[in-house]
Amino acid sequence: MQEFATSNKGYKYIITIIDCFSKYAYAYPLKTKGANEVTNIFKKLFLEVCLEKLRTDRGKEFENKLFETLLNKYDVNFFTSKDDKIKCAIVERFNRSLKSKMFKYFTSKGTRKYIDILQDLVTSYNNITHRTIKMRPVDVNVENEEEVFFNTYKATSVRELVKKSFSKSKFKDGDKVRIRYKLNPFDKGYNPNWTDSVYTVKDVLSRHKRHLVKISDESRRKI
Known about the structure:
This protein has 223 residues and is of the alpha+beta class. It has two domains: 2-128, Ribonuclease H-like superfamily/Ribonuclease H (Nucleotidyltransferase, domain 5); 176-216, no CATH class. It contains six helices and seven strands; from the N terminus they run ββαβαβααααβββ. A three-stranded antiparallel β-sheet has the order 5-6-7, with no helix packed on it.
């Protein structure tokens, strides 16, 4: 949003926050990504809501002593993704929805000023039925949390969800496989996705939704 700063009182960024369970979202404009400004945003947020856990990306605005002190004050369990490439799909989806609403407004009004209507856009999002939870985020509360859980996970409890999550691996001992290269978004489309070498599956270990597959090369050396 930096290109629109002159139309928005110098605000260059928008920090977005979402409750992963209720899908209730928040958005605040920022002039910088400095620790002071971001920490002040969360000070205001913590006066409105009680957070037990918070996950963010690995930005310096979150990984600093000032922010850490605030989290400790409110006893918030804080963690980040180990891999910088891993994003939170839920908040990224909200970001797309927010930008879509914003640019529709830009087109209809012939402006790039969002600072005065940002909270209206967020309120609109929170008052529209979310397809995952099948109700409006603003309507989620303690009384209907079991309904929200079922609509989201198609299970009535965490225990049932974990049981359903165990699935059979598509691999078995003796299968021949190739390993997929870890590509980044800037790799050329013609670069190969898979290794030329073929490996043999030696063992399959079930780990919740994912399976650990042990393989060996032609010399029977385990990889």
